[in-house]
Amino acid sequence: MNYDYCQNTTCQYDDFITKGVCATDPTLSALQEVILIYLQELAYYLLKLKKFGAQNEIIKENILEAISGIITNIEYNNEQFQKLIMILADDLNQAKILYANFCYKENIETAFLKPYFKSGGKLNINEIIKKGEKHFIQRNIDYTSEQKNLFDIIILFIKRLCMKIIQIKSYNKDYEKAYETILILLSTLNFSDMSINEIKSIIETCDLEYYKLVRVLYEAQEEVYGKRESVYIPFSPRNGKAVLVSGIDLKQLEAVLEATKNKGVDVYTHGMTMLMAHTLLKFREYTHLVGHFGKGSENSLFDFAAFPGAILMTSYLFQKIEYLYRGRLFTTDALAPKGIVKIKNNDFEPLIQAALQAKGFTKQQQKIIFRVGHKQKEMEEKVKDLIEKLETKEIKHLYILGILNSDSEYKEYIDKFLKILPKDCFAASLAHEQNEENILHVDSFYDYLFIYRVLEKFKEIKPLEELKISIFITKCDQYTLTNIINFINMGIKSIYLCKCIPTLINPAMVETMRKVFGIKEISAPEADIKATLAE
After folding, report:
1. CA–CA gap between residue 476 and residue 139 (Å, rounded)
2. Which of 258, 246, 251, 249 lies closest to 224 in space, CA to CA?
3. Which of 268, 273, 219 lies closest to 249 in space, CA to CA?
4. DSSP assignment, residue 517?
5. 504 secondary structure, DSSP code
6. Contact assessment for residue 236 and residue 260, using Cβ atoms and an 8 Å cutoff
7. 3-class DSSP assignment, residue 5
8. 135 and 142 in contact (C-beta within 8 Å)?
9. Contacts by 339-343, CB closer than 8 A, 24 or more apart
């Protein structure tokens, strides 16, 4: 796309591990385990208090901030960690006292958890870290592999919900139900004796709230930045000085674009959330927002190394890369990891100066353009036609192929799949560049929304469980598992997933998704078509 490197997922994984980019330090893992222990115990009592009508906005912010630290893998120094633990310990103590008081007033028997850490006394960080390590090891012993992986999926959901809440807060939208969902998920982590079906049910229920949050965010962004449209976006840079904006915060992208006006600096987006900004009317007004760069957060090491300018990370997911980019990495997050410059009060002058002093793009590259977004009216007409054909059995099976597929990794697979596709079947493909009698090319390589809109239209006519539909996901991103579970909630039972980079999704989690949720792994076109038709 912007550079050449190995496409093979194993190669990417090996390179990441060799560099130590995605590996989490054992001490950091222990610290995160400690934070989770406090959060899950605190969540238990907050849910109890919620039934009495008691809430605390300060504690809510403390919880979201603590989860944010886990998301971004912040390497707390001794003072920062001690401060955070003291805050969480104090919140937990307050919640327990308040819970006991309510129970006493209402003449209700209390149900206290057995605390993992002793309350009161002097805080000993070394002892806490040791206990965190011990808890992590014991968790692996106490849980079955499926339980452990499902609890890991719960933690993944907690992170994703928190990320969406962080985004929604900036649009002043209500997120109370999503916050309650985080508390439910955190509290679930307290109980190692839950059955697989119980954990699965909680995940599926909470996924519905996640999807509602996604829709609220989508609508909020359109309220502020205008309606989305289908657009062609350059994926090849032009000559000149440059800034790369990565992460999930469109407000910060807007702030950077305002700050870089008439400064002789081009702005590029990075990652799928930022990519979709190009489809919004307001962002198309900035002439120096010139394109998209790189393959996304899972390839940060490669993308950042290839970018010859300054880089702003907003609510970012991958750290431990700062040693490669001294002086070129910036963040607007509350806590800046070591080696990354913190932008204060939206003063982007240091970012701009770093971009002007950097080499910038000096070679003209081959022009690469992708279309993002879809034409609403055109899509609705095609969906209506598909529904009629499914209803009359003219179409025996509908396939949705190639979600997220912008490169050639699964091109050969998809091309062969479509070549041998039975004439009484139909495929909507986001990765095949031509329309045929039974193939609809959706000219937008990244468009989960298109899939949801199609499925929602189908659902208006008939339950999706009664329709023969298979979804093939040919590239993974940070939202893959949450989207898969949402597809399942909507009624899709035939879902095929490609091999994912282990640094993005733990293979053990994928195996549990296969066993518990029934997803399948993409294999060979002939075998996969045969399997779907037999379902």
Report:
1. 28
2. 251
3. 273
4. I
5. T
6. no
7. coil
8. no
9. 340/313, 343/312
Block residue for tokens 């060799």: 18
Phi, psi angles (nearest 5°) of residue 231: -135, 155
Tell me the C-alpha distance between 112 and 95, whole Å: 11
Determine the pLDDT at residue 16: 37
Residue 396 DSSP SS3:
coil
How far, in Å, CA of 352 to CA of 362, rounded? Answer: 18
Distance CA 210, CA 154 (A): 12
Average pLDDT of the residues of the chain: 84
407 closest CA partner among 282, 320, 299: 299
- Report d(CA 123, CA 134) in Å as an integer: 18
Give me the phi and psi of 287, to 5 degrees please. -70, -20
The dihedral over CA atoms of 208, 212, 215, 219, expressed in degrees to the nearest 10, equals 180
- Mean pLDDT on 416-427: 92
Report the alpha-carbon distance of residue 492 to residue 201 in Å, rounded: 16
Of 261, 246, 264, nearest to 330 by C-alpha is: 246
Phi, psi angle pair for 270, to nearest 5° = -145, 135
Taking only the tens place, the pLDDT of each residue in 257-278 is 999 999 999 999 998 889 989 9
The angle, 0 to 180 degrees and rounded to 10, between the axes of the packed helices 250-259 and 349-357 is 70
Tens digit of each residue's pLDDT (9 = 90 or more) over 24-47: 566 777 888 999 999 999 999 999
Q: Please name every residue paired with 399 in a beta bridge, in sequence order, or none if there are none.
A: 427, 470
Reduced to 3 states (helix: H, G, I; strand: E, B; else coil), residue 283 is helix
Determine contact, residues 23/55, Cβ cutoff 8 Å: no
Rounded CA separation 485/256 (Å): 35
**435, 441 contact by CB (below 8 A):** yes
Q: Which amino acid is at 363?
A: K
Q: Are 266 and 258 in contact (CB under 8 A)?
A: no
Q: Which of 136-150, 172-186, 248-262 has the lowest mean pLDDT?
A: 136-150
Give the closest residue to 289 by CA, choosing from 247, 249, 251, 257: 257
Vertex 443: Cα angle to 439 and 449 (nearest 5) = 100
429 SS3 class: strand
Quote the tokens at residue 52: 């009495």
pLDDT at 501: 80
Q: What is the mean pLDDT of residues 188-204?
A: 92
Q: How far is CA 60 from CA 43, 49, 222, in A?
A: 10, 13, 27
Backbone angles phi, psi at 86, to 5 degrees: -65, -40
- pLDDT category of residue 407 using cuts at 50, 70 and 90: low
CA dihedral sign of residues 380, 384, 386, 387: positive
